[in-house]
Every structure is written in C-alpha cells, then in structure tokens.
Design goal:
The chain is an alpha+beta fold. Helices cover about 15% and strands about 30% of the residues. The strands form 2 sheets. A 5-stranded mixed beta sheet has the order 2-1-7-4-5, with no helix packed on it. A two-stranded antiparallel sheet has the order 3-6. It binds FE2/S2 (inorganic) cluster.
C-alpha cells in the first residue's frame, strides 16, 4: 500500500492509502491541509508541490496539463484534484 506524506507549515502527516486512490477521496477520508473547490482543474486552489514520487502519480493529462501550462507551473506542481496515487509520494502544501 502506498504511503503519502503531506507537509504543511511545520506539520507532517503520514497516511497509507489504497493504490489508485485519488487525493480527493483521500481528503474525504482524512482531514488534510489540501483544499478543493472546483475539482475540475479549473481554479488551482488544490495545487501542491510534489517533493518525492512524481513518477508515482497518475500523469497530468487533459485539463490538468492545460491548466498547469497556462499557469506556467513549476515542474514539481500538480493539481491534487486530478492526481491518483500509484506509489509512495511526498507533497508540500503552500500556506494560503
Ligand atoms: S479543486 Fe480546482 S483545480 Fe483542483
């Protein structure tokens, strides 16, 4: 089972998840600092930095890919509402 580490401010949250679970479902099951609004790769509120394990997330395609390109996002940035967790990952959430 993949592990997910979520860093936010000085806190570290460690969760074990079912392979293929999306961050939306993960955050529905656990209280996390990741915020969602549109859930359709349109608002960007769920953006996160992938510190480790980018290769263990479902690839950015379609609307997420277009959004990240339009926002000139850094290579380590992904939209949590679009990602599925396929292996161990560590993400950093910026303070609002
Ligand atoms: S919740 Fe709006 S882009 Fe992810």
């Amino acid at each position: 089972m993949p592990s997910v580490v979520i860093r936010f401010k000085d806190q570290i949250q460690r969760l074990t998840v079912r392979r293929g679970l999306g961050f939306q479902a993960l955050c529905a099951e656990h209280e996390t600092p990741i915020e969602f609004d549109c859930r359709e790769a349109d608002c960007g509120i769920c953006i996160m930095h992938v510190v480790k394990g980018m290769e263990h997330l479902s690839p950015a395609v379609g609307e997420e890919k277009d959004f990240l390109k339009a926002m000139h996002a850094d290579a380590d940035e992904r939209l949590a509402c679009q990602c599925r967790i396929m292996g161990d990952v560590e993400v950093l959430i910026d303070e609002a």
